[in-house]
Amino acid sequence: MRALLSVYDKAGLEEFASGLADLGWELVASGNTARALADAGIAHLEVAALTGAPEMLGGRVKTLHPKIHGGILADRAQPQHMADLAAQGIDVIDLVVCNLYPFSSDPSIELIDVGGPTMVRAAAKNHAHVGVVVDPAEYGGVLTELRAAGALSADTRRRLARAAFAHTAAYDAAIVGWFDTAGPGGEATLLPPTVHLALERADVLRYGENPHQSGARYRAAGQPTWWDGVVQRAGTALSYLNLFDADAAWRLVQELGSAGESAVAIIKHANPCGAALAADLAAAYTSALECDPVSAFGGVVALGGPCTAEVARVVAAGPQADVVVAPSWEDDALDILVARRKATRLLEAPPWTGTPLEVRSLGGGFLVQDADRFEAMRSQWQVTTKQAPTAEQWRDIDLAWRVCARTSSNAIVVVGAGQAVGIGAGQQSRVEAAEIAVRKAGPRAVGAAAASDAFFPFRDGLDVLADAGVTAVIQPGGSVRDPDLVAAADEHGIAMVVTGERHFRH
User: Fold this and answer.
1) What contacts 24+ positions apart, CB below 8 Å, involve 462-466?
2) 130-164 exposure pattern, b = at least 16 Cβ within 10 A, e = fewer
């Protein structure tokens, strides 16, 4: 039995190669893999000695030879294949152990592997006769099966072949992505002609959005996300909706971060039902909860700072939370919240990170866009009314705008004194979103600021806010009726700020 070893990742190589040698396998190795085996004192045959051709072109050509690929690709059930091998003096190769250059970690032309993917694909194609191992984590299982049975089963070879094709697919996807993000002049292709997603399963969830649906979390192959750095400190297993809502909450609370102030966001069904800024985290939670304590039940609480015992006591006194996320936890804080409800998931999370492109399904196809972000800075916003916002109103306008951008459209958010007091989300009519927001705000709307995620098509939505006592409004503008809106705002004596940037969220 002959095994060909050519690996970039040398983890576990010495033990695996020794195990094969102890079983009587002949080892063939190339380049640095051969040097590693030599350093370990493991007998092997170098590829150049097998092929009779030296490595050339600085190592670009090592294994691209009929004595390698003939030995891998020969169908043992085809007499003509075996006759061809005999005529050329080629011996079969029964196992290929190969993993590729880590292209994603340091992309460059020289890290585009040619010989490696060719060997991997050849072995995977001929998995009826050849085993292929691309992941060092498989070494132990492969050795165990070889020791027990003397050969790999058909099921194992098929499973390993699938993993091999997934490995090369992810590798090629990474290369295509590099071409898209590093053009000849260093420019990025925003929406390339093809999008190649190679995803690996990171977690299997109890079920999907509903119990009759299956669900799992995936990530781009070889590219950990912020979720992979999450440590669950307590609570039951995370569900599909826990992940979805916690992602929205953690993103928002970090976008709310303000110098000298602490932020808290409370999310229910991926929409904010509370958000606030305050001098300390406990006060921020109390203020965020006051926005809509009924909706906060069973929601996700995102804390913009370490969860201390003091903060935990305040959260524990509030409505039941399904998830609480914080950058760090005191042990006493964990004990307090576990005593309140053992099932609540307590997560310690690194900073939130997104992806350059957002992908969602569309009737058998996909919609793709670059991720939404705040591009129009405050310095670019324009006051369009006679009345300008006060310093306090600017703070509330900014908070309302950020919360509104992460609320399902049509969205209206009312903020007063650093605290969201009314949120109207996901309405077909913008005026109804305004009516919901001011109804939830009640008397807290008086003197407050409001944000609209898109322009007001008519003055009726603005009138609802003004009649409730709102004194400052921020909106993108861009309607043919913008002059009418400015006139209406001046009529009410309120300040209006136009950002020039819409933030629809569907």
Assistant:
1) 462/434, 462/488, 462/489, 462/492, 463/488, 463/492, 464/431, 464/434, 464/435, 464/438, 465/412, 465/414, 465/434, 465/437, 465/438, 466/492, 466/494
2) bbbbbebebbeebbeebeeeeebeeebbeebbebb
Domain identity same for 326 and 419: no
One domain, residues 151 and 266: no
269 has catalytic annotation: yes
Number of domains composing the chain: 3
Domain containing residue 382? 378-498
Please tell me the pTM assigned to this model: 0.85
- Which residues sit opposite 473 in a β-bridge? 450, 496
Instruction: Specify if 335 maps to a domain.
Output: yes
Do residues 249 and 325 make contact, with C-beta atoms less than 8 angstroms apart? yes
Q: What CATH number did the domain enclosing 127 receive? A: 3.40.50.1380
In a domain, 372, yes or no: no
d(C-alpha 152, C-alpha 160), whole Å: 10
Tens digit of pLDDT at every position of the chain (506 positions)? 999 999 988 999 999 999 999 999 999 998 888 889 999 999 898 888 787 777 778 777 777 788 888 999 999 888 899 898 888 888 899 999 998 877 777 777 877 878 889 989 999 999 999 999 999 999 999 999 999 999 999 999 999 999 999 999 988 888 888 888 766 655 667 788 888 888 889 999 989 999 999 999 999 888 889 999 999 999 999 999 999 999 999 999 999 976 678 999 999 999 999 999 999 999 999 999 999 999 999 999 999 999 999 999 999 999 999 999 999 999 999 999 999 999 999 999 999 998 888 899 989 898 988 888 888 788 889 999 999 999 999 999 999 999 999 999 999 999 999 999 999 999 999 999 999 999 999 999 999 999 999 999 999 999 999 999 999 999 999 899 999 999 999 999 999 999 999 999 88
Catalytic: which of 10, 81, 196, 269? 269
Q: Write down the catalytic residue from 10, 81, 125, 196.
A: 125
State yes or no: is 125 an active-site residue.
yes
The CA–CA distances, whole Å, from 19 to 2, 43, 132, 314 equal 13, 12, 16, 58
CATH number at residue 281: 3.40.140.20
CA distance 424 to 52: 75
